[in-house]
Amino acid sequence: MTDAREFAGPNGATPARHAPGTPCWVSLMVHGPTATQEFYGTLFGWEFQPGPQQLGPYVRALLDGHEVAGIGQLPPDRHLPIAWTPYFASENVDRTAETVRSCGGTIGVGPLDAADAGRLAIGSDPSGAVFGIWQAPAHLGTAVSGVAGTPAWNELLTFESASVAKFYRSVFGYQEEPVVSADFDYVTLHLGGGPVAGIRGLGQALPRDRGPHWMTYFQVADVADALDHLVHLGGHVLEPAHDTAHGRVAVVADPEGARFALLQRQR
């Protein structure tokens, strides 16, 4: 559960361009952006500044001046699942969108320009999980990683990993590394020799009210402390903190129901 992309550190180094296929941004569309900003601002220490408005009101979240995520407002008449959406880097969004369609996925938004920041599309894989594609002439994406309050990992929760892994391999050129286990269906997606995302097959244990979906892990310094803050702020604990090979993890939801995970790295 590491990230092979290059990023800016806390010292403010200039962020490098993300290699095609690497997760480069996460974005959340909600009905109440003001309350959502207060929730995540308090939980992760984020501040906010205006971003591109092509899809409606939108802000970028900053941690110590570095961009880490985006929050936008859903149109009042759109009753879509509230969920964090990962964006994957592309050198040509239009060409990647065509590949998505030819491989059995769909494109629901775009491709379109986000002012002068870049070009985007939002699509879904054949199982229905939503993801974004980002082409970055100006806004390179998440500019800091490896510290509390930043995205640490993206994981697709779906029915089974094999067929959907083939889709992502065809679209983004990933190499797959399955976890060999009789009772654990998991594939790690690799680029350039390093892991960039994961696919977990849950079978009938997949939440019926969500269907297949991507989930973002955010790094925290102390997961127990973060859970206390989250509950006080109106969030919900879906899976209590538990130890994994990559650290201590808890699955939670914000007040509007967006699911995400908290990750306390092993020391």
From TrEMBL:
Superkingdom assignment: Bacteria
InterPro entries according to UniProt: Anthracycline_SecMetBiosynth (IPR052164), Glyas_Bleomycin-R_OHBP_Dase (IPR029068), Glyoxalase_6 (IPR041581), VOC_core (IPR037523)
Ranges for domain VOC: 22-136, 150-265
Protein name, per record: 27 kDa antigen Cfp30B
UniProt organism field: Streptomyces chartreusis NRRL 3882
